[in-house]
Amino acid sequence: MFQHLIRRAPVAVVAALAAVTLGAAAPAPSVITIGNFTFGAPVVTVPVGTTITWVNGDDVPHTVVANDKSFRSKVLDTDDRFSFTFTRPGTFDYFCSIHPHMTGKVVVKAS
Q1: pTM of the prediction?
Q2: Whole-angstrom Cα distance, residue 88 to residue 110?
Q3: Alpha helix locations (H) across the chain?
Q4: pLDDT for residue 111
Q5: What span, in angstroms and rounded, lies between the C-alpha atoms of 21 and 37?
Q6: In angstroms, what CA-CA distances link 10 with 16, 18, 21, 81?
Q7: Please, are residues 76 and 34 in contact by the beta-carbon 8 Å criterion?
Q8: Where residue 4 falls among pLDDT bands split at 50, 70, 90?
Q9: Which residues, at least 6 apart from 52, have a Cβ–Cβ distance to it below 8 Å?
């Protein structure tokens, strides 16, 4: 149906049509599930202003603690959640204070 239009359309219009048809790139996950003693997304890259929510899917407690002390959750029991909004760019390494081998990283990029 659109073939005759696409052949004659400028490149910018074709790109816009493709973006609408195919969908824009998927955003970084805003939920990180904790399971099997790991953070489900060990490294995520997000824009400034993103709120990340960690959800404990394990049957043992965990925490989410930034190495630079910019955020710290309470002890999260099964299905508990902790959210933090990243308001400045940077790299934020974090770990579980109960199980320090569990680590993750959020890279926050300026918009």
Answers
A1: 0.75
A2: 7
A3: 3-8, 11-22
A4: 77
A5: 39
A6: 10, 13, 17, 48
A7: yes
A8: very low
A9: 30, 31, 32, 44, 46, 83, 84, 86, 106
